[in-house]
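Summary for the steering committee. One of the milestones for this cycle was to obtain a three-dimensional model of the protein with 2-acetamido-2-deoxy-beta-D-glucopyranose bound, which we needed before selecting residues for the alanine scan. The sequence and ligand used are listed below.
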Amino acid sequence: MKVSTLSAAVSCIASVAAFPQYLETRDTWEPQEWIAPGPNDSRGPCPGLNTLANHGYLPRDGKGITLDILKKGMLEGFNIEEGDAILLFTQAIRTAPDYPLADSFDLANLGRHGILEHDISLSRSDAYFADPNPFNETVWAETESYFTTPMITVDQLAAARMGRLATSKATNPEHELSALADGFSWGECAAFFEIMADGTTGTVDKKFIEYWFKNERMPTEIGWQRRKTTMKGSERLEYSLKLIIAGGQVDDQSFNRLLLH
Ligand code: HEM
Ligand SMILES: *[C@@H]1O[C@H](CO)[C@@H](O)[C@H](O)[C@H]1NC(C)=O
Ligand SMILES: *[C@@H]1O[C@H](CO)[C@@H](O)[C@H](O)[C@H]1NC(C)=O
Ligand SMILES: [Mg+2]
């Protein structure tokens, strides 16, 4: 009797243990299949768009991205409002070799130095030293040295970005940061809190950020979920301002510089 009570209890515990998993499966969002890019696939300096292409939310070859493709890909992949894709597309298209005739861009086009691609990237080399398109371990190690707690804060990320700026100024004889690039750079930082978190906390789990940058893959297998509310472009402005203040750039022209991305 005791034995059967015990085994009943065990099987009860077992089903309780299994149940949350079942619930979780029902509640969780699963991305489309991730496939590593091949040698002829176009990839560029943007970890966000590279990731969308690796999951097939953008063409897997990274080429011929039209406004309609971009709107759908950003919404389905990261839950970003279509208005934001419209705004960013006006910038992306400028990197197409046949601009202003172009109606699409390739991901590698984004890395043409001095159009959108800029120095001081968090995970890419300045173009003076090496190809600014691929993920760069050395640069990323510098950035990561500022992430000293399991949750990355606005202050830490702002300090990392200012650190990359100082390094570039000190070592790159061709260092340059246009007003557009300055604003873009802050907007790129804002993505940490809006896309890799849900935009409400001002923090983001360091392991999601590491996984995302290194693999250009959505970190669902380590617990990340696509945000449930649709991201508005205005959120980027809000986080960019917080970051600029944390970075101590308020007295600069940064408020004027705040543009897109
Ligand atoms: C049409 C939409 C987009 C365009 C045209 C675009 C373009 C770019 C470009 C040109 C860069 C390189 C700048 C540089 O660091 O030199 C970049 C970097 C970046 N992008 Fe995007 N992007 C787009 C969407 C996104 C999305 C949806 C995300 C987030 C999920 C994102 C996150 C980032 C981040 C974090 C960086 C900085 C990488 C680094 O500093 O190493 N972007 N993007
Ligand atoms: C990549 O392109 C080259 C040159 O066109 C071709 O020879 C090669 O087979 C392609 N590789 C793949 C994996 O498609
Ligand atoms: C990574 O970036 C550093 C610093 O800019 C550069 O010296 C190095 O050549 C880059 N590595 C690769 C593999 O491109
Ligand atoms: Mg760059």
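Key point for the committee: The two ends are 67 Å apart (CA to CA).
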